[in-house]
Write a structure and sequence with these properties.
2 copies of one chain form a homodimer.
Chain A lengths: L5 H11 L8 E2 L2 H7 L2 E6 L9 H10 L3 H5 L2 E4 L3 H13 L3 E6 L4 H9 L3 E5 L3 H15 L2 E2 L6 H17 L4 E5 L4 H13 L4 E7 L4 H8 L21 H10 L2 E5 L1 H15 L5 H12 L1 H4 L3 E6 L6 H5 L2
Parallel strand pairs in A: 2-10, 3-4, 3-6, 4-5, 7-8, 7-10, 8-9
Antiparallel strand pairs in A: 1-2
């Protein structure tokens, strides 16, 4: 499959329109005052399954031809992508198998099962997950939908930025980066819809391999993530790295304390329940006032599947 | 001042339009499925100061003539009304003094001070609060704006239901009841805008004097509230009782466990951060399926100022 481009984002927007929500853009004058900037929050925590991941999953599921679709889909995921693919597959009436690592967030696994997928547990390493995925795909003849390197997934994730850029004129757009599906899809959307908008990717200090990769020009893959942002522990994919590099994306690294403070700010002032991984972009904007002061800044609130039980018992 | 009527709600809507938000109406297919009904949530936690109270406070502040306004306003409040009056007073550029009981939620007091009001602490009894209010009002010549018996406050609170009834055709409307400002204002809005809509008031078991008052036809005032719903501990006012009684409102009583479960449902499925007092109406709907099944039901999510620090440390 060729690398995805802006046309693929447009095609994804048309393909997912009957299934995914056009999420609202939210504002907060209190947070604007704190940031000294005009912030525009794309509310992907209000997307179906509570995360932007539904966009890419829908694009992948509805992008299958009838013969492929009959054999179902397989993926591995620490949470939101698994739930998203399960719901998208149920929407098309096809099977979905999800390989999940031991130690994944309980609430997210429950959601995946509730959407009708079959769970397969494995050791919490990339190698173990990919091996079990390949084995299942071989047995079933099913299509593997990778959480962030699949071109249809990348194009689907780009539709969030496409909608935001259609709604607001932006000087900069800041998105969280883990594996890079949202970040690289956003790069495609910016390139086609608003090339003057600067792209920043925000990353937790305990999983900052994207910043290291962009700084050195070589993709870093050997690291052990250590962050509360459970959605951002994946390793930046090769295709995602190339797209971010060629677009000139800039990485901003923030520590978990700043991310938790930003999350609580969104909870208390905007009354929106976002997950830690979604707060990293706002944390980056607040930590780098010099980059954003006086500008119009878009932020993608990527998801809202916080494990409240863990929080309340912490 | 004469008892407020539907015309006063219409006048309030016009008076507060430049200051208060028209809040969105939210839906959740997951919660609809649980309730077996079509629920329409009026998102007053997204109102300014995070609660419907801003409506009544604005109507009272902007309803003063120039001479009254110069001398400022005084009130007592366990939280949201104090913050709302402080912000409304600041909007008109007049002084605001707020008597707060010892033991009030810390986050709410901080909000009142942040809006520029002067705090005056007193013992946590109605008598102590009213005495200090009267004393301050005498010293300053300032108008006392009672949190729920003031006719302008009642009419202002009715504008939330007015907006909801303009946006949705409803068979029933369910609102939380504490002192009764929102409940009686809602009764006025229904009477004028949608008389076929049934009014239910939802009340915590540990402060269920409205249910007792409506059942006996005599207002119960001698009780000691015991509920996590800190916004619903006030005693139903005399004028509020008369308005609810003459409208034929029905009371539904729910325990705090059901209210917390409903709150978590809104947090996890709608990603909206509401406070316990706001969840009591949904709890009542879920506990009384026989009353609401298959019907179009409005619910006012009254506020979002939950004390997250207390929750996380609990």
């Amino acid at each position: 499959m060729a690398d995805p481009g802006f046309d693929d984002v447009l095609a994804a927007a048309a393909r997912i329109a009957p299934h995914a929500h056009v999420t609202p853009v939210l504002d907060s004058r209190t947070i604007d005052a704190l940031a000294g900037a005009s912030l525009h929050f794309k509310a992907e925590h209000l997307q179906r399954v509570g995360a932007f991941k539904y966009r890419g999953a829908c694009n992948a599921v509805w992008g299958l031809d009838a013969d492929e679709a009959r054999r179902g889909v397989v993926t591995h995921s620490s949470g939101n992508h698994g739930a998203a693919l399960a719901l998208a597959a149920r929407g098309r009436g096809i099977g979905c198998h999800v390989v999940v690592p031991e130690g994944a967030v309980a609430g997210k696994l429950a959601a995946i099962e509730a959407y009708g997928a079959t769970l397969h547990r494995c050791a919490p390493t990339i190698a173990a997950r990919e091996a079990m995925c390949a084995q299942l795909a071989g047995q079933l003849g099913a299509r593997i939908v990778h959480p962030y390197t699949d071109p249809l997934v990348i194009a689907g994730q780009g539709t969030a930025a496409l909608e935001l850029l259609a709604a607001r004129r932006l000087d900069a757009l800041v998105v969280p980066v883990g594996g890079g599906g949202l970040a690289s899809g956003t790069a495609l959307a910016i390139a086609g819809a608003s090339p003057h908008t600067q792209l920043f990717v925000a990353e937790p200090e305990g999983a900052a391999e994207t910043a290291a990769s962009l700084a050195t020009g070589e993709r870093v893959t050997d690291f052990m993530p250590d962050t509360i942002c459970d959605g951002l522990r994946g390793t930046l994919g090769a295709i995602n790295f190339e797209l971010l590099k060629s677009h000139g994306a800039k990485a901003l690294v923030v520590d978990d304390t700043a991310t938790l403070a930003a999350m609580l700010l969104v909870w208390t002032r905007m009354k929106q329940l976002i997950e830690p991984s979604a707060a990293v972009a706002l944390a980056a904007v607040l930590a780098h006032r010099e980059l954003f002061e006086g500008r119009r800044v878009g932020i993608i609130l990527s998801g809202g599947n916080a494990d409240l039980t863990a929080l309340v018992n912490a």
